[in-house]
Design goal:
heterodimer; A: alpha/beta; Rossmann fold; four-stranded antiparallel β-sheet; globular; B: mainly alpha; ABC transporter involved in vitamin B12 uptake, BtuC; two-stranded antiparallel ribbon; two-stranded antiparallel sheet; 71% helix; 3% strand
């Protein structure tokens, strides 16, 4: 069986500056790959490159199909949903409008029931459906971003630092919900996190990025158990 | 005779009505400018020329094809909107991501070219366009006579403005538009074809200008300079209402028309400057405009 996402020799950057110098990584079907590394290593750039949000070269396959020459909107239609860094809340839209934007690619009739399901997962959003999304707290906005991404019924979810700036209790809640989603829907996740121990607990594979190159790949448990790796790359 | 502040009532109401008519054009034009600026970041200086094209297309439809006012009200915005689509796809698109100044220079140049071409072909003395039969005459409102056509202009502009506002504020299409105004790349990551939306938005704003042009055709004569009269004031309206604010441009458009009309009654000499005076005050007190968001 082919991997859900297969990235080989990916180069990408902003304008003339190349940030990624040929990286490779995989996400297995229903698997979680954690992408770790210091600030500026190229984690967010990797997610944006996969989405087609910046100039890139290399081979990216989603379930065997090449998506590296596609436009961002076509990639979204193929089933990749993005929870961007900074949450990407549309502040002027209501919570409900934000959520429905997530379901834009879908033409099936079960959007309404999926929306209801998301509101069960994130009850706090139900109370605020008609509110401007800009009035939500950071944690609520993160939940909104995840619920919005899941409403597209993706095959692959790209999560960019979901724990950023949130209280530990909220982070715990968030990851509990993510585990539930993972077992329910069987989607694959590519997770970028600063909080390495959290990410390694959640993921089954991990890649460590260093200055735009993959420094280390392996099972999440192995990497988490290696004290030297932790000290050198992950700082805990 | 009834007088208000020493002014005969019919004169006062007459000026308010005139103000509302001008306000209707301000609102329609600044609404299109606001939508275009919001999504494209382009200050569309060609707006006045496209307004003029709307009036000319109505005139051409009548004189070359025999298509009358009511159909022109529908067809001219579509034709001029399609022209706008071509402009956006071929030229304006190249300026995205550059400084606003480039868009301003380009569209200002486009306005000069378009107006020049029409002046060359049709002269600048103006062509007549008849008020449609159904709207000729006037209605006695008791306190004043309302020319039917002018009442129609105000009503039609109001309906179109409100419809536009509802589409943008209350529908899923409008939600995508507002979202793209905030963060276009992210909207694209949800599967929305943003470049197409941008083109259609420009065309939509242009169609609003052309619609205003058709409404104006029977009031002014159809001439190549008719847009220049409005465009300066309309830019002041956009600044006062708040750059990119939809409801702001509608309210400010009608409101300033009335303010201008009333100034004509009490201090005629100041009526030409009052809008700009208001602009200065608003910029001093609320730099983001009356309905704008402070960044």
């Amino acid at each position: 069986m082919s991997a859900l996402l297969e990235v080989t020799d990916l180069h990408a950057g902003y304008g003339a500056g190349e940030v990624l110098h040929g990286i490779a990584l995989n996400v297995q079907q229903s698997g979680v790959t954690a992408l770790l590394g210091a600030n500026g290593a190229g984690k967010t750039t990797t997610l944006r490159a996969i989405c087609g949000m910046l100039a890139r070269s290399g081979v990216i396959r989603l379930e065997g199909e090449r998506i590296d020459a596609m436009t961002t909107e076509d990639i979204a239609r193929r089933g990749i949903a993005h929870v961007p860094d900074g949450r990407g809340t549309f502040l002027d839209l209501t919570v409900g409008e934000n959520l429905r934007l997530g379901a834009y690619v879908r033409r099936d009739r079960s959007v309404a029931s999926d929306l209801a399901h998301m509101l069960d997962l994130f009850p706090v959003l139900r109370e605020r459906l008609r509110q401007q999304a800009g009035t939500l707290s950071g944690g609520e906005q993160q939940m909104l971003a995840i619920a919005r991404a899941l409403l597209s019924r993706p095959r692959l979810l790209l999560l960019d630092e979901p724990s950023f700036g949130l209280a530990p209790l909220i982070v715990q809640q968030l990851f509990a919900i993510l585990s539930r989603v993972r077992t329910e829907s069987g989607i694959g996740i590519l997770l970028v996190e600063q909080n390495a121990s959290l990410a390694l607990d959640f993921a089954d594979h991990a890649c460590i990025l260093e200055a735009g190159r993959i420094a280390l790949v392996g099972a999440a448990a192995t990497i988490g158990a290696d004290e030297q790796v932790r000290r050198v790359y992950l700082g805990y | 005779m009834l007088t208000i502040f020493g002014v005969p009532a019919p004169l006062l109401f007459g000026q308010v009505l005139l103000g509302l008519i001008n306000g209707a054009f301000y609102a329609l034009l600044s609404l299109g400018l606001a939508i275009i600026f919001g999504l494209l970041g382009i200050i569309n200086f060609a707006h006045g020329a496209l307004f003029m094209m709307g009036a000319f297309v109505a005139w051409m439809l009548l004189n070359y094809v025999g298509i009358g006012y009511w159909w022109a009200l529908l067809l001219a915005p579509i034709i001029v909107g399609a022209f706008g689509l071509v402009l956006e796809r071929s030229i304006i698109r190249r300026l995205y991501g550059l400084d606003h100044l480039y868009g301003l220079l380009l569209t200002f140049g486009l306005a000069l070219v378009i107006e020049g071409l029409f002046r060359n072909q049709y002269g600048s003395s103006g062509l007549p366009y008849q008020i449609p039969h159904a709207l000729q005459g006037a209605t006695n409102l008791g306190f004043m006579f309302l020319p039917n056509y002018r009442g129609w202009v105000v009503a039609a502009a109001l309906v179109v403005c409100l419809a536009t506002w509802i589409v943008i504020d209350k529908t899923p299409l409008g939600a995508r538009l507002r979202a793209a105004t905030e963060n276009a790349p992210l909207v694209q990551a949800f599967g929305v074809n943003v470049p197409r939306m941008v083109s259609l938005t420009y065309a939509g704003g242009v169609a609003l200008a052309a619609f205003a042009g058709v409404l104006a055709a029977p009031i002014d004569s159809v001439n190549p300079n008719m847009g220049t009269y409005f465009i300066n004031i309309v830019f002041a309206v956009v600044v006062i209402g708040g750059m990119g604010s939809i409801i702001g441009s509608i309210v400010t458009g009608f409101g300033l028309g009335v303010v201008e009309g009333l100034t004509k009654v009490f201090w005629p000499e100041a009526s030409g400057a009052v809008v700009f005076f208001v602009m200065v005050i608003v910029l001093l007190v609320r730099p983001a405009g009356l309905f704008g968001k402070t960044a």
